[in-house]
Amino acid sequence: ESKALMQIAVEEAARDMERKMKMIQEIRAFDRTPISTVKFVDLTSTAGYGFLCEMSIAELRERIALLNEENARDLEERRGDILADKVSYKKMIEQRLETISHNRG
Fold first, then answer.
1. Phi, psi (5° rounding) for residue 55?
2. Is the pTM of this model over 0.85?
3. In this predicted structure, what is the pLDDT of residue 96?
4. Cβ–Cβ < 8 Å for 44, 54
5. CA dist., res. 75 & res. 85, Å (int)
6. Residue 101 backbone phi and psi in degrees, to 5
7. pLDDT per residue over 43-53, tens digit each?
8. Cα angle 89-95-99, degrees, rounded to a multiple of 5
9. What one-character DSSP code corresponds to residue 35?
10. Which residues 6+ apart lie within 8 Å of 45 measured at CB?
C-alpha cells in the first residue's frame, strides 16, 4: 500500500514538474517575442485637453506656413519701400546739386 501511495506521489510530482516546465517554456517564448512600441500619431486630431485654443499638428503647420508667407510678403514690401526711399533720396540730392550748379553758373 505504501508503494502504491509512493508511486502516485511520484507520478503527481512528475506531472507537476512537467506542467511547471511547460509554463517556463511559454514564459520564455513570450519574453522572446518583440513588443512593438511604435505608436500611431494622428496629426489631424487634437490632444483632447478641452482648451478652446487647441489645434492639431496639421493645423499648426498650416498656420505656420501662412504666417511665413505673410512675413515674406511684409519683408518684400519693406524692401520695396526702402528701395523707393533710396531712389527718391537720390533724385532729391541730384536736384539740389543741379540747383546749386545752376545758381553758381
1. -145, 155
2. no
3. 96
4. no
5. 15
6. -65, -35
7. 888 888 888 88
8. 145
9. P
10. 56
